[in-house]
Design a protein that fits this description.
2 domains; GMP Synthetase, Chain A, domain 3; globular; seven-stranded antiparallel sheet; Luciferase, domain 3; about 230 residues; alpha+beta
Length: about 230
């Protein structure tokens, strides 16, 4: 898949200082993989997950667990490789095994989840290591959590995967709410049903007065939630 973006047009917008610039990339991929400069009118309607078009010196594939390309709109791992020499990094210093794993099947495995539109715009939806697999499909945890946090009565939330009876995982959702009487599990589920496919719906919604957090970083300790 080869995708181009109009660099001259984007740079002119950037110089005019009338834009928001979005992008996606990593150190291993040689910087930005995709970029888009948005005009003031575009910035208000641009999809939150869309990071623009891929650089013309890179090839991007959205792959399944076998690194096979998935259909447009389907979520998978973002895989990258160069069209020209010396565009992306050659490996990790002193870690040849990690370099081989990250570049299996001649693709740089970013560890990120995304999808490609039919018009070849790239979307980033979260980290693969934080994803849950339900019925063979990836559930991007960060994306799902951000949807739930957009509810006014939600203080914070955490999505975790637990083993399902028939393999893979099922989703448990934990929510800290502002006013207990004003947000029910049914309200949360109704909200999600209108926004996500069925496989991304939680098996259960549980409310907590507060989350266990790591000292210093204050990150939610999801490993403690699994055993609740």
């Amino acid at each position: 898949m080869r995708v181009y973006y109009d660099r001259d047009a984007d740079l002119n917008l950037i110089k005019a200082k009338k834009v928001a610039v979005i992008g996606y990339g990593s150190t291993e991929s040689g910087g930005l993989v995709a970029l888009k400069a948005l005009s003031a009118s575009e910035a208000t309607s641009w999809p939150a997950t869309c990071v623009g078009a891929v650089r013309d010196d890179l090839e991007v594939r959205i792959g399944n667990r076998f690194d096979e390309e998935v259909a447009a709109g389907e979520t998978g791992e973002i895989l990258v490789r160069p069209r020209m020499p010396y565009v992306i990094s050659d490996g990790y210093y002193g870690l040849p095994e990690k370099a081989l794993e990250a570049r299996r099947n001649l693709w740089l495995h970013t560890g990120d989840l995304g999808y490609m539109e039919t018009n070849e715009r790239l979307h980033f939806v979260g980290r693969a290591r934080e994803a849950i697999r339900v019925g063979g499909a990836f559930v991007p945890v960060e994306y799902l959590e951000n949807l739930i946090r957009s509810l006014e009565e939600v203080v914070d939330c955490a999505v975790v995967g637990v083993p399902a009876e028939l393999g893979d995982e099922e989703i448990r959702l934990f929510v800290q709410r502002r006013t207990p009487a004003e947000l029910s599990a049914d309200c949360v589920m109704s909200y999600l049903r209108a926004k996500v496919p069925k496989f991304m719906l939680p098996k259960s919604v549980e409310f907590l007065p507060a989350f266990p957090r790591s000292p210093g970083t204050l990150k939610i300790q999801k490993n403690k939630l699994v055993s609740l």
